[in-house]
Amino acid sequence: MKVVKFGGSSLASGEQIEKVFRIIVSDPERKVVVVSAPGKRNPDDLKVTDLLIDCADRALRLGDAGDLFHSVLDRYILIAKQLKLPEGIISRIHDDLLNVINGDKSSPDHYLDAVKASGEDNLAKLIAAYFQAQGVEAHYVNPGEAGMIVTDEPGNARILPEAYDHLFSLRSRSGILIVPGFFGYTENGKVLTFSRSGSDITGSILANGIKASLYENFTDVDAVYSVNPNVVDDPKEIKELTYREMRELSYAGFSVFHDEALIPAFKAGIPVHIKNTNNPNAPGTKVMNERKAVNGPVIGIASDQGFCSVYVSKYLMNREVGFGRTLLQILVELGLSYEHTPSGIDDISIIIRQSQINEELEQQIIDRIYEELHADEVKIERNLALVMIVGEGMRHNVGTMARASTALARAGINIEMINQGSSEVSMMFGVKEAEEARAVQALYREFFD
Ligand code: ASP
C-alpha cells in the first residue's frame, strides 16, 4: 500500500487533476491520496492558501471577506467546470466556505487555521467527486474522523503519538481514500494546521500510520537538485538521498520537501520517492535509510537567509559552571528559539531566526546578558545567511572543510561562522546575506564541476 501526496501546483487546474487521476489509477497500490490546496498555475498566480489567509485577515478586521470570498470560490468553480463535474459539488464548497468564514472569531489564530484548512478540505471533496464521476471507487476522508489528532499550536501543530494507532484502521477501508493535507484536529475538535507546506507532513504521518510500503511525493520538478536552480544553472539531479541528508537540506532551504515531513516516514522505515506530476516517468529522487552510490563527499548545497547571531564573549567562560544554561534560560524567558550554538573557549554565538526579534527585544537580550552573565562583550549581528554542504560521504572523506573554506576564500568571501553538526553529514558556513549566492556558486564549483 502506498501513500501518494500531490502538491498545490499538481492540483492547480482541471488539467493537472486529470494527470493526478491517471497517475493514481495506473498503480493499484496507490491507496491513500493526500492533496494540497490549489496552487499557482503560473509564476504570477496566487495560491488558494494565500487567498484564504487574506480572506481571514479581512474578515477578522471588517467582519466579512468581501470579494476575496469569490476569488477563492472561483478557483474551485473553474476546476469543477474543467473537470465537467455536476453543480452539486460547487454548492457544497460554497456553503462550506461561507460557513468557515462566518465561523467563530473569538480566537483569531484558531479562526485563521480553520479558514486555511478549508483550502485542502474542499479540494479533497472535489477530487473524490471527480474520481467517482470517472467510475472509480474513491472516498473523501476527514482527518478528524480518521484520527489525525494534533497539539493545540495554531499554524504550527504537531501530531500526537496516539494518532498513529487510529490511522492504521484506514488500511481496511475500501476504495481510494482522498485525504486533505495540512491539518488535523485537537482532542477537543478544533481544526489546526501544520506549518506552511504541511501537506507533506500529513502524507508522511499517514504513511507511518498505515505502514505504507512507500510514500510518493509528487511535485513539479523531475528530481531534487543538488543546489537551487535559481542560483546555479542546470545543477545536477540527485537520484538517492538518505533521510538525514534530506532533513539537513530541507532545513537549510530546499523547498521541495518540508523538513518536518521526514521523521514520521523515517521512524517507520518507509522510503520517500519524490516525483514529477508533469513527467511521472522521470526517475525522481529516492529518500531512504542508506544509499549505495556515494559520489564524493557532498551531495547537495543549501542556503537560507534571515538569521542573526548573538555573540557573547567572556574570559574563562569555559570554567564557569552553568554559563550556557543561564544564557539559554534568558532566551527561554524571552520566548526565543535558537538554531545553532557554535562555541569557543571564551565565546559562544547563538544563531537565531531574525524574524523573532525586533529592536526592542534585541536591546533586552543584550542588557540581560551583560547583567546576568557579566559578559565582556555582547553583540548582535543581523542579515546572515547560512550555507550548508551536506553529504554522508563527508564522514569518510578527509579535507572537505579545507576544500570548502579554500573555495570561499578564493571567491573573496568572509566566513562569519563555521559549524559542523555532530552527525558529520553537514557543514555550515555563516556569511553575509549579500554574499550568499556567490558562496553557494563557489562551493558548487568546488564539489560538483
Ligand atoms: N496549502 C498549504 C500551503 O500553501 C499546505 C501545502 O500546500 O502543503 O502552505
TrEMBL record:
Keywords for the protein's UniProt record, in alphabetical order? Amino-acid biosynthesis, ATP-binding, Diaminopimelate biosynthesis, Kinase, Lysine biosynthesis, Nucleotide-binding, Transferase
Determine the domain of life of the protein's source: Bacteria
Instruction: Mention one GO biological process in which this protein takes part, according to its record.
Output: threonine biosynthetic process
- InterPro entries annotated for this entry? AceGlu_kinase-like_sf, ACT-like_dom_sf, ACT_Aspartokinase, ACT_dom, AKIII_YclM_N, Asp/Glu/Uridylate_kinase, Asp_kin_monofn, Asp_kinase
Q: Where does substrate bind?
A: T49, E120
Listed pathway(s) = Amino-acid biosynthesis; L-lysine biosynthesis via DAP pathway; (S)-tetrahydrodipicolinate from L-aspartate: step 1/4; Amino-acid biosynthesis; L-methionine biosynthesis via de novo pathway; L-homoserine from L-aspartate: step 1/3; Amino-acid biosynthesis; L-threonine biosynthesis; L-threonine from L-aspartate: step 1/5
Q: What is the catalytic activity of this protein?
A: L-aspartate + ATP = 4-phospho-L-aspartate + ADP
Fetch the CDD domains from UniProt: AAK_AKiii-YclM-BS, ACT_AKiii-YclM-BS_2
Record's Pfam families? AA_kinase, ACT_9
ACT domain residues: 389-449
Q: Does the keyword Nucleotide-binding apply?
A: yes
Instruction: Identify the EC number(s).
Output: 2.7.2.4
Task: Kindly list the GO molecular function terms attached to this UniProt entry.
Answer: aspartate kinase activity; ATP binding
One GO cellular component this record assigns the protein to is: cytosol
The UniProt similarity line reads:
Belongs to the aspartokinase family.
Supply the NCBIfam families for this chain.
asp_kinases, PRK09034.1
> What does it do?
Catalyzes the phosphorylation of the beta-carboxyl group of aspartic acid with ATP to yield 4-phospho-L-aspartate, which is involved in the branched biosynthetic pathway leading to the biosynthesis of amino acids threonine, isoleucine and methionine.
Protein name per Swiss-Prot or TrEMBL: Aspartokinase
Taxonomic source organism = Bacillus canaveralius
Lineage of the native species?
Answer: Bacteria, Bacillati, Bacillota, Bacilli, Bacillales
